[in-house]
């Protein structure tokens, strides 16, 4: 079992990187006739080669590079011209984001360029499907995720995993004064939780984790993920998930369990392949996104002791209000009372969005609200990272980490998802958003009450991995210290 889950983690991690490189490679080599009329800005562009030189120079810092250009462009929309191909529209303009994600949703499906590679690797996973197959899966997922029974069950599982697996690792690291890669720990941990929520399987991935884990750089991941090993990993993950699903199909018919896969078995004639693809899809959608959010959150918190103090006070206040003993876990209702923590997590994802960009393909000629012409077949990408740092959206303190901007009289206030498309927006908004907040809040509350997380080299800006999710190159080395009374003065 361990091999399966170790391989699965590796596969998920490396596949998004491979996908991105594949995607970028395809987008600079796909032959198409360019037709373009636009009022938008562009990166430096030359006859015949378009923006290729700049693109190659900046491809390892694609997110930062496009952000710099978007912020300097009046409409916050640019065209990336590639030789002999369609331009790619890149936008950070909330009106355009609303247009592609909601108002003109049907005109901007998941395009073949985005889906073909992932489909070949993973099968019919939900977030690459269009049309009826997507609608069917989404209906079941949204219904399940919004049920109170599921939320309560999720809280129990997350709390149990936190206290039996995560906290003991942190305790040990604190006792032995070891450096941990927090990102790597979160990867294993979130994978555990997702496996239990999805199909009641406990992979025990954390139990196998050494105290000072190996961490993988992007290049190492790519080496390890070389063709043969990559195929082996896919084959292992497929075989094991098929085995799990086969057993579940026999066991679950007529006997409902409290996990997500049971809901898909309950609805209609589920096959092993269908359930396997759903399983992989949810593991992909829910693991690295929450890992990214947690990792950047602890990094940003390490240089914001004022915010840390407020969170600790809020967690302690909720504990006191409900007369809970130290170490006793919080329930769903209590977690929802932590508005400051909710704001602090939301604010950290504004500056470091777990999914920094998202791409759609235009299915018929169109004009975006800012006047940009988009032709059929062109890809339109929104850059959530750029949007998080725009003065136009967040005001002149846009670069400051300020959870208070999300609070009114201490109560968390939502912002328009078109200004803050961290969970996507419109009909395809993240199906696991509420679950993600429950997970992250519960984990942070449990960790922060008990430990101080000391980021090593906290003044260094971590390097971003070129991936679909915003992970840190080299992980996040931390030391862990038992919290003393320093915040109680
Ligand atoms: C902080 C954590 C998370 C963030 C920032 C996030 C963000 C996103 C984004 C941006 C999308 C749109 C992707 C696209 O259209 O290509 C998405 C879709 C999705 N997410 Fe999440 N996600 C998070 C956690 C989760 C979790 C924990 C789950 C559940 C296991 C989940 C399940 C899904 C699903 C099923 C979709 C596909 C929705 C659809 O296509 O209709 N997500 N998420």
Verbal overview:
The chain is α+β, with helices and mostly antiparallel strands. It has one domain (2-487): Cytochrome p450, CATH 1.10.630. The protein contains 18 helices and eleven strands. Strands 1-2-7-4 form a four-stranded mixed β-sheet, sandwiched between helices. A three-stranded antiparallel β-sheet has the order 3-11-10. A hairpin with a 7-residue loop joins strand 1 (77-80) and strand 2. Helix 12 packs across helix 15. Mean pLDDT is 82; it is low at 1-41, 206-226 and 485-489. Residues 126-127, 138, 141, 194, 282, 285-286, 289-290, 293, 354-355, 358, 422-424, 428, 430-432, 435-436 line the site of protoporphyrin IX containing FE (HEM).
Name its key features:
489 residues, Cytochrome p450, 8% strand, globular, disordered C terminus, binds protoporphyrin IX containing FE, iron, metal-binding, Cyt_P450_sf, iron ion binding
């Amino acid at each position: 079992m361990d091999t399966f889950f170790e391989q699965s983690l590796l596969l998920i991690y490396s596949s998004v990187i491979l996908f991105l490189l594949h995607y970028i490679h395809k987008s600079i080599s796909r032959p198409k006739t360019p037709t373009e009329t636009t009022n938008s800005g562009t990166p430096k562009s030359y006859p015949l080669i378009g923006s290729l030189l700049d693109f190659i120079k900046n491809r390892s810092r694609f997110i930062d590079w496009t952000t710099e250009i978007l912020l300097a462009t009046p409409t916050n929309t640019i065209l990336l011209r590639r030789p002999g191909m369609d331009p790619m529209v890149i936008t950070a303009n909330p009106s355009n984001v609303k247009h592609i994600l909601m108002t003109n949703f049907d005109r901007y499906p998941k395009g073949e360029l985005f889906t073909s590679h992932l489909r070949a690797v993973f099968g019919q996973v939900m977030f690459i499907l269009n049309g009826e197959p997507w609608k069917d899966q989404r209906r079941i997922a949204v219904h399940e995720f919004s049920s109170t029974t599921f939320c309560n069950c999720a809280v129990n599982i997350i709390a149990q995993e936190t206290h039996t697996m995560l906290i003991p690792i942190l305790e040990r690291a604190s006792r032995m004064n070891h450096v941990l890669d927090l990102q790597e720990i979160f990867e294993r941990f979130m994978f555990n939780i997702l496996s239990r929520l999805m199909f009641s399987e406990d992979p025990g991935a954390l139990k196998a984790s050494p105290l000072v884990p190996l961490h993988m750089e992007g290049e190492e991941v790519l080496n390890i993920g070389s063709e043969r090993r990559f195929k082996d990993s896919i084959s292992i993950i497929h075989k094991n998930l098929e085995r799990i699903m086969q057993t579940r199909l026999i066991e679950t018919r007529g006997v409902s369990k409290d996990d997500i896969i049971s809901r898909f078995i309950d609805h209609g004639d589920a096959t092993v392949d269908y359930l396997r693809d759903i399983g992989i899809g949810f593991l992909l959608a829910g693991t690295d996104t929450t890992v990214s959010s947690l990792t950047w959150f602890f990094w940003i918190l390490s240089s914001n002791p004022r915010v840390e103090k407020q969170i600790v006070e809020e967690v302690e206040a909720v504990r006191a209000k409900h007369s809970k003993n130290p170490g006793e876990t919080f329930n769903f209702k209590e977690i929802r009372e932590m508005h400051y923590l909710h704001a602090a997590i939301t604010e950290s994802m504004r500056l470091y969005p777990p999914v920094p960009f998202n791409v759609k393909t235009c299915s018929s000629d169109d004009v975006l609200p800012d006047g940009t012409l988009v032709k059929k077949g062109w890809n339109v990408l929104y850059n959530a990272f750029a949007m998080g740092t725009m003065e136009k959206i967040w005001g002149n303190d846009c670069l400051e980490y300020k959870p208070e901007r999300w609070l009114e009289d201490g109560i968390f206030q939502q912002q328009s998802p078109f200004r803050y498309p961290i969970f996507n927006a419109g009909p395809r908004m993240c199906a696991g958003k509420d679950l993600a907040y429950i997970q992250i809040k519960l984990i942070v509350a449990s960790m922060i009450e008990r430990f101080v997380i000391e980021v090593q080299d906290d003044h260094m800006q971590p390097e971003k991995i070129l991936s679909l999710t915003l992970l840190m190159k080299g992980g996040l080395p931390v030391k862990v210290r038992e919290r003393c009374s320093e915040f109680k003065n």
